Amino acid sequence: MRKVLLGLVVMGLTLPMYTQISETTETEALSEVTVKATNYKYLQNVKTEQAAAIPVKLLERKVAEFDVKESEYYQDDYEFYEVNFYIPEGTILAAYDKDGVLLRTVERFNDVNLPRSVRTAVAKRFPGWSITKDAYIVDYHERKGVAKKYKLKLENGDKILRVKMSEEGEFL
Fold first, then answer.
1. Could you state, in chain order, the average pLDDT of each consecutive group of 10 residues for the chain (172 residues)?
2. Helix (H) / strand (E) containing 139
3. Cα separation of 103 and 118, whole Å?
4. CA–CA distance from 169 to each of 9, 43, 125 (Å)?
5. What is the C-alpha end-to-end distance of the chain, expressed in Å?
6. Based on the number of CB atoms within 10 Å of its own CB, is 39 exposed (0-12), middle (13-18) or buried (19 or more)?
7. Model pTM?
């Protein structure tokens, strides 16, 4: 009985190996796929050299990929559409035209990963101060480009200071 069971187990394991080897794989030509990135300019303009927070990048990608025409609110009568995108770390208000092209955005994110240039400039100008809160603000316009700035709250003991900075670390 033991030999019969052992023989069945061995045959059960070896038979599938032979069937895999003997089968031939056929190649099939796939139809051509065209990918259209309507809002690629937006992603190129808001891209930062420094490592931004992952939620910021994910939400910006959602804004770029959003298709107004597929929305349940789409009607051909309206000239443009305003869409709000929310995550716990921030919001983006985006305006699209009736063809789905991104016209402008207003973005605000709280407590994001600050660029090295901003951290270095604050440490150099305000030694002994710590950054307790920060806001990353982006204004994108299709024709005007992008404007990025940081609003920082600095503390040193009982003293509080608020500053605005560019992405390059310049005080505004």
1. 67 61 60 61 62 73 79 73 86 85 88 86 90 89 86 90 88 86
2. strand 130-141
3. 29
4. 70, 22, 11
5. 87
6. buried
7. 0.67
Amino acid at 170: E
The single residue listed with the structure tokens 């420094």 is: 50
Number of C-beta neighbours around residue 111 at 10 A: 14
C-alpha distances (whole Å) from 33 to each of 30, 36, 70, 148 are 9, 10, 19, 36
Contact, 148 vs 166, CB < 8 A?
Answer: yes
CA pair distance 96, 81, nearest whole angstrom: 5
Question: Token match 């005080």: residue?
Answer: 171
Q: Please give the Cα distance from 74 to 64 (Å, whole number).
A: 17
DSSP track, 3-55: HHHHHHHHHHHHHHHHHHHH--PPP-PPPP-----TTHHHHHHH--SS---HH
Match 């259209």 to its residue by tokens: 36
